[in-house]
Design goal:
Radius of gyration: 20 Å
CATH topology: TIM Barrel
Distance between the termini: 21 Å
Strand content: 5-15%
Shape: globular
Structural class: alpha/beta
Length: 407
Amino acid sequence: MEEKRYDTYPIKSCTIDVTEACNLACTYCFTWGNTNRVLDLKLGKEIVDFFFDHVDPKDNHYELSFWGGEPLLQYRLVKLLILYAERKSKKVVFGGTTNGLLLDKEKLEFFRDHKGKFMISIDGVKEVHDKYRVYKDGRGSWDDLKRRIPAVLNVWPDARFRMSLSTGLVPYLFESVKWLYSEGVRWIAFSPVFEEDWREENLKLLEEQLILLADFMNKHQDFSCKHLSDPGSGIWQDYPCGAGRSYVGFSVDGKIYPCHRFNKYGNAKKNKEVREKWCIGDIWTGFNEKRQVFLDYPKLRKEQCGECSVYKFCAGGCYAVLADLTGSIFGLQNGFCEYEKLLFKIGNTVKHTKQKSKKSCVCFNMCYMEGSEEEIFYRDKSSGESCICFNTRYGGPKDPPNTRRLI
């Protein structure tokens, strides 16, 4: 097998930070939320140019996603970059994550007409959402977001919603899922706030909630919860995601990071060592040797986790979370490992009747994995599933035949 080199390995998807500012002040925000830098249009176009200069032209699908901060604070910039990217390639689709508070008819229709779809952050029922997802004056944002859900689902019937799974949300997880389902939402994901103290009692309560959620999913086959769907989806992996390989994050200053969660390390208020630790290049000089560790990751990580019963499910865990918690992408943290084992255990009780339709995506459009056959192993190759995103992206058109890849 040809060696993967940091300076030549192609990318397929990226996020572009268009601003570090936000209209909320969520208490658990992983960006640290203390800068307000904004990407200018000229540099944004140069980032788009760099992206297309480093893709594999044989691929029939690329994605540009927009992040922040809150990316829709810079909607005009996002719109101009989408129009610019479309002139570069007809094979590009667009995505990102938003708190949803700035979505309106104009934006929704523009994104719909330009192959764009944003995932929307919501923490479930009002009591929990308004505890964490607050405006800068402390007011909760739930009522303002709830009013926008019908318009979102009208344009994006299969819209993706995500919850930040804090210890405060755990007791309300199942209640929150049921409420979202009643609102018409049919797909959710949750990302744990591992920075909190995940004690044994929190994990025990989470197990109870996940059992209820798994039973709900088995009774409502039109509903997907990514992280409970993953364990039984038939996918094994050597990488936790495509970060640093097929997917990268561009900061507002043109620096390149393994993913959007690492961009905060480029904060100018940090010292030089911290700023450069996770920077894998820039758009002027290209990728540097720090990218290589992400290409070589499996052979390095297997020494630590290879014997673990769920290693092929989590592949060692989120690079950025472990970097934040331990200072290394190879760090180990007990709460993290116990969570992954719990998810694997409960997730394997979820029935996967959707797989029989041959129209579902093995990753439900929310993982950044590359999807090449030497890196992802399928437990059931006879399932006939199709992946519409090459296992690399968060959103996008639902099951478009021209991008479907049979497994």
